[in-house]
Fold NUDIX domain-containing protein.
Amino acid sequence: MSQVHVAIAILHQDGQFLLQLRDDIPGIYYPGCWGFFGGHVEPDEAPDVAVQRELLEEIGYAPALLEPFARYDLEDVVRHVFHGRLDVPLDRLQLNEGWDLGLLSLEDIQRGDRYSARAGQVRPLGQPHRKILLEFVEQGFLKST
């Protein structure tokens, strides 16, 4: 089995994190869960190029500066994780993919869920997304940016 490469972004603003509520449809990874914006790295595409392309496709925005945070290699997926500031208000973003978007607080991340007005219910964070965000905060990246 070959590994799928994805490039995802931790976008933060005022101590909160921009996440996407993924569509709640069978057959996708983490349906109905909060997760990062980003997606598949195309063949012969660099992960830093892929994350910018995916952000533009999904929310019509990509920050001028995205820096590498970490790479997570698992048996079936390699996650290339980048981080940067969200320098525009939420109402300037166009949700082109997913059920909802929102800024999640550290408390939301620690608890592992957040309410979505669009879904009308509390929805869980995807486990890998929660783990990555907690590591990001624990390693002091939020304070240094």
